[in-house]
Amino acid sequence: MLHQEAVIVQELSLAERALRIFSKFLKSHLELEDQLLLPAHETITAEKSWRTLIYQEEHKKLLSLLSNMREMMSKPPEPHDMRRWVIEFIDYERTFKNVMEHHEEREEKGLLMELDNHLDTDDLHSLITQCHLAWQESYDSMREDIEDIRSQLP
Ligand SMILES: [Fe+2]
Ligand SMILES: [Fe+2]
Predict the structure, then answer these.
(1) pTM score
(2) Burial 106-120, CB ≥16 within 10 A → b, else e
């Protein structure tokens, strides 16, 4: 994660920019799921591993952890506290990553598998295309910024 590389070398303004990009990316990913995948999941009447609500709650949890991370980044430490702050911050981000990994695993085993099994091929195809286009669009809009940050890191 580019953002953490910047934290480690104490380039906090680059780290902040990278986190902002990540945050935009994650938000558009979650929105897409909330607007397309979860409503489709809700229509499945067969037995599901987890209710649609669980995914929605986890999205909220991720957004709230992310907003705490951005809050921490917005209050950088005094230079003499910097190394300890970096450790604490990276630790906090570990929590975020755990929730994120757990959530993705749940989606793979539940949500995606169930959509795949129960939606008809046309609907599924249209969902996949829409997700793919949206993903590409948000990546394209951030690519230059990402390259710029990368080029400024030592
Ligand atoms: Fe999700
Ligand atoms: Fe996801």
Answers:
(1) 0.93
(2) bbeebbeebbeebbe
